[in-house]
Design goal:
Blueprint (H helix, E strand, L loop, with lengths): L4 H18 L17 H5 L7 H19 L4 H20 L13 H4 L1 H24 L5 H26 L4
Length: about 170
């Protein structure tokens, strides 16, 4: 269930880490290339038996809170809603419906390293690419946008793997 205590802690914990840690990092002139967004992890890790309505409500509020603090005017909200709709498509593109249990969280320990990296990298890359395209509202310098999306996807995946090894109980 999405309204369990551990999910509420993940919800606010990811927002806190995103706003007060990742967004606060300053790399000088390279800061425009490094702005990984990890809030997608909350939606992507939810069990398969979570209803779409619950996921959309959670995605809306997660994106809205992030938009308020990042001053991004609905970018995170809209793209997080798109990723919520695309989550089953991405997941079933890498494995069949029978391979994944419906009542377990989708994390590195339950999916396995390869499927986790594939599923989350596709999802997070799509998120970053859409975010940068809508932020710039142009395909001008598309290779630069692609590069930024790749760098941010890679850094977000590293950070999420690190978080999971610290906070998720390994079975």
């Amino acid at each position: 269930m999405i309204f369990e205590l551990k999910n509420i802690i993940w919800f606010f914990g990811l927002i806190f880490i995103q706003i007060f840690f990742l967004d606060a990092l300053d790399f000088g002139t390279y800061s425009s290339f490094f702005s990984p967004i990890i809030i997608t992890f909350f939606i992507l890790k939810q069990r398969l038996n979570t209803t779409v309505f619950q996921l959309l409500i959670a995605a809306f509020f997660l994106g809205l809170i992030t938009d308020v603090f990042r001053n991004t005017l609905g970018l995170n909200t809209s793209i997080l809603l798109i990723i919520t709709f695309l989550k089953p498509t991405f997941l079933y593109a890498i494995s069949s419906k029978e391979d994944i249990e419906k009542d377990v969280d989708l994390n590195i320990f339950n999916l396995g390293v390869f499927r986790f990296l594939l599923f989350f990298s596709i999802s997070i890359f799509t998120y970053h690419l859409l975010f940068f395209i809508l932020e710039q509202f142009s395909f001008h310098n598309f290779l630069t946008l692609l590069f930024r999306a790749l760098i941010n996807t890679f850094s977000a995946l590293l950070f999420l793997v690190f978080l999971q090894y610290i906070f998720i109980y390994k079975k």
